[in-house]
Design brief:
- The protein is an alpha/beta fold.
- Helix content is 46%, strand content 19%.
- Strands 3-2-1-4-5 form a five-stranded mixed beta sheet.
- The chain is globular, with a radius of gyration of 20 Å.
Amino acid sequence: MKLVVGVDAGGTCSRAVVATVDGEVVGRGLAGPGNPLSHGPSQAAAQVGAAVRQALGGRSPGTVAAAILGIAGPAGTGPFAAELRIGGPVTVVGDVVTAFAAGVAAPAGAVLIAGTGAIAAAVHDHEVVRTSDGLGWLLGDEGSGRWLGLQAVRFAVRHWATPLAAQVAAHAGVSSSDDLVYWAQALPFTAIDDLAPLVCTAARDGDPHAGALVDAAVTCLLRTLDDLGQDGPVVLAGGLLAGGTPVQHGVLKALEARGRQPRLALDPAAGAAWLAARPLSSLPPDRLHEALLGPPTPTATPLSARLRNATLGAIRERRPRVSET
């Protein structure tokens, strides 16, 4: 039985899928962060290897005919190939490529990712030909989870008497706006990132200030996507855009109003497995994609309306939170 491996290696965790070349998923694995930029090549490769071994479930790595690893930022193949020791080639591609592949079987289109960071990319023949944003928290990543967290802190220090500011203060463990300034100056990135779900929950509960921050994030992300000028399908990925959040709903509603048919990249690791299996499979690409990732999203009912009626728990049951960029 020929097997392929797909990996989504992010800054939060690494997810692996092992499948047959004809689209049957036989194992999944989860391990620590696999981003070599933030954790170093050796540590990233070790975590990716742990996720793949868990997904293999005792099967020999020699039975793996090919592996595709989706990783944010530039990364060499060497450390990962040495760690995996599979029977076939290991290929490293950008995580935007595997995210796009997780959403559609089409060879070209656009992908918009909003997790800890934010980036949009135009994809042709499963290669990135153009990007917008993805500049990091200091210079860009507008509309991302970290951006949303920073906006919440900035709002709170200026509007201390509001309910949203009280939630931010409780999260930071401070009792005054001055203390919040000092807290933020220390750049506790994990805690700042964790403000994004707080803002989303407050917006969902009707807080007008949180709602305004969510609307601003939606505007930023749409501007980033529009900057590409890319026709064709649009795939949404990352925790903010594939996790049932108000940001996701706002982006979906706007795209559907334009007549676009957005798809969700709920499982980039399976998208990577699809890319690895395509040249080896007896199935045509669209059928292989359906076997690995499920049927295309129906378009008779707007995706945003169906997601509004779905529970976040149901979404997470299908696919846990997508790794951040």
